[in-house]
Description:
Elements: E1 6-8, E2 19-24, E3 40-46, E4 52-58, E5 69-74, E6 80-84, E7 94-97, E8 103-108, E9 111-115, E10 123-126, E11 132-135, E12 141-146, E13 149-154, E14 161-162, E15 170-172, E16 176-177, E17 183-189, E18 195-200, E19 207-211, E20 219-224, E21 229-234, E22 242-247, E23 253-255, E24 266-271, E25 278-282, E26 288-291, E27 299-300
Amino acid sequence: MTVRHACTVLIPPILIALTVIQCSKSTGPTTPVTGPGAVWDYVPTWSPDGQWVAFMRMGPTYLTDTISGLYVIKGDGSQMTRLLHYPESGGINTIDWCASGWLLIAGGPDGVYKIRPDGSSMSVFDSVWALYASWSPDCSECALLIQGKLWLRDSSGANLRQLNPADTASSAWDADWGPRDKILDIRYVEGVQQLVFAETDPMSGTFSIVYPGYPTLNAQRSRYLSDWTIGFVNTSGEQHPQLVVMDLRTQAQSCITCGDDYNDGCGYFDVNPSSGEFVYTRTQYGGLWIINADGSNPTRLTDPPWPTVDWSGY
């Protein structure tokens, strides 16, 4: 496998900074990553124009180190930049990039953050802890997943309201606002006794089951890829979790990351809106990778440093 680049990190000892990382092409490590010194890149998301990837990096001492934080990198592996150091980066579940030029960061203990992709204008968008956040297609609203329920908030931060508050028989596990103005989620519905894929109408607040999950659905991190195609991380197979693509109309599925390495898998992913390529994390090799829409040519995008950590005091 080829590697897009390896990086020398030049980070000053300050908490909040724009940090440019000098990169050059290298073959980089493709051996399994284990141990307390590993640095993990995760929750990648493509920019709306398909040119950049935003992601979180978490080091082994993320509360105090100068590595962890929010980064952006071009899809060709150049211009990797740390936007800020976010000490609680280990708790982030979602980064969503809106065409209006705002990033939402959800899952942290202080609520949902809103920030420009150049690192400026960071603010707390919502002080309520939300597991997932997703922009509407026109960026006028945001869907928030709060304690298993879907909520909406205007892009200005006003008008927080719950969708379908009368529903007490189901719980959503994630949220992605898609191109048909529907909100996709993995949901547990009482009486069905298993996970299903559901779509919620943001106008009426009602949901419909679009895939019943038979015989059993064990999935996480679902996203729309197009009007009728979704991707999700399948955790029910014999291998480690894998990226699977499914047509909602025919329910035909194809595995993108399934390979010969039983111990390798996919943790997080996003699809490039221009090229259809996926950016994803590999559980066995660390870093971010890019793979073609047909599952060919997995290529390393980031090559995180592996610092030596003294754990004797822990």
